[in-house]
Amino acid sequence: MALILNREEVMSVLTMRDTIDAVEQAFRDLAEGKADMPVRPTIRVPDPPGVINVMPAYLATMGALGMKLVSGYPQNPSKFDMPTIQATILYSDCRTGRLLAIMEGGYITAVRTGAASGVATKYMARKESASVGILGSGIQAVTQLEAVCAVRKIKSVKVYSPTAAHREDFAKRMASRLGVDVAPVDAAEKAVRGLDIVIAASSSKQPILKGEWLAPGAHVNGIGSHTTDARELDEAAVKRSRVIVDSMEAALREAGDLLMPMADGAIGKEHIVGELGEVVLGRKAGREGADEITLFKSQGLAIEDVCTAKVVYERAKAQGKGTELSL
Questions:
Q1: Of 12, 178, 229, 293, whose CA is between 20 and 30 Å from 60?
Q2: Domains of the chain (ranges plus CATH)?
Q3: Ordered strands of the 293-297 beta sheet
Q4: Catalytic, out of 68, 158, 297, 310
């Protein structure tokens, strides 16, 4: 018997705080060599353009085993009235290999991505950080802000989206949900300049965050771009920052924000200080000074999906959620 969990059931049992705790442990496992996570294979579909990834992982300390099948089709919202990201997670018993659950993975993807930035913010942003700027207003922006507010005492937020209605709606929803002041702004610069924490969570393939806008001591979470041909941050933003990545292997294979400046000779591989797991373990410093600009570049890892799936499965079983199906 496998437990089938739809999106609403996943949402009903998963909290950001639990996800941050699980993701932090997953990065600890990865840095300690207690995780098995093969490089995700990618299938590219030309028409309509899209990608499909298979993302398996095993976490020894947590006893979590599973895989995610995830696709990204940029034309889905406009052509089919569907989300860009479609995902399903298979969660298995690591002792026997038996399939325990099949769960909707789109919401998990959004929450675990936010949680990874929450962990990075916990270790890299200045303790007194109180203001946030967000570039983007989609589901990723929602969970990013929720995670940052879980690890820092945020007082004010500015959000920019090129569509006025989207940024205004985001501001109203998040102010009500989080109890902080959220203001929509009509230019990307206004959501960056002078702010303590900046979140790049857009779908842009061209830089929308300029390094000259970043205040001394700012922390940046770059999560929107995750392919070699896309970048949200300009060259100056990367050069000015102390760079930490979720995975060195993934970043050097997929992160256009870093690969493009490398190709232009602006930075070298050594500009990447280390991985988030090393920061969590204290092997590398997330920040070395109050005025240092820090950047967490996230590609998204299978360990994040699988550890979150474990949380969802255990909470759902305890609360009697989902539908048992014999396969």
A1: 12
A2: 2-109+303-325 (3.30.1780.10), 124-300 (3.40.50.720)
A3: 181-185, 156-160, 131-135, 197-200, 219-222, 293-297, 241-245, 272-275
A4: 68
Please, what's the largest Cα pairwise distance for the chain? 57
The tokens of 190 are what?
């206004």
Q: Can you name the residues that pair with 133 across neighbouring β-strands?
A: 158, 198
Q: Is 210 annotated in the active site?
A: no
pLDDT (tens, 9 = 90+) of the chain, 327 residues, equals: 899 999 999 999 999 999 999 999 999 999 999 999 998 888 999 989 998 999 999 999 999 999 999 998 989 988 899 888 899 999 999 999 999 999 999 999 999 999 999 999 999 999 999 999 999 999 999 999 999 999 999 999 999 999 999 999 999 999 999 999 999 999 999 999 999 999 999 878 899 999 999 999 999 999 987 778 889 999 999 999 999 999 999 999 988 899 999 999 999 999 999 999 999 999 999 999 999 999 999 999 999 999 999 999 999 999 999 999 988
Residue type, 318: A
Please write down the HEC assignment for all residues of the chain. CEEEECHHHHHHHCCHHHHHHHHHHHHHHHHCCCEECCCCCEEEECCCCEEEEEEEEEECCCCEEEEEEEEECCCHHHHHCCCCEEEEEEEECCCCCCEEEEEECHHHHHHHHHHHHHHHHHHHCCCCCCEEEEECCCHHHHHHHHHHHHHCCCCEEEEECCCHHHHHHHHHHHHHHHCCEEEEECCHHHHCCCCCEEEECCCCCCCCECHHHCCCCCEEEECCCCCCCCCCECHHHHHCEEEEECCHHHHHHHCHHHHHHHHCCCCCHHHEEEEHHHHHHCCCCCCCCCCCEEEEECCCCHHHHHHHHHHHHHHHHHHCCCEEECC
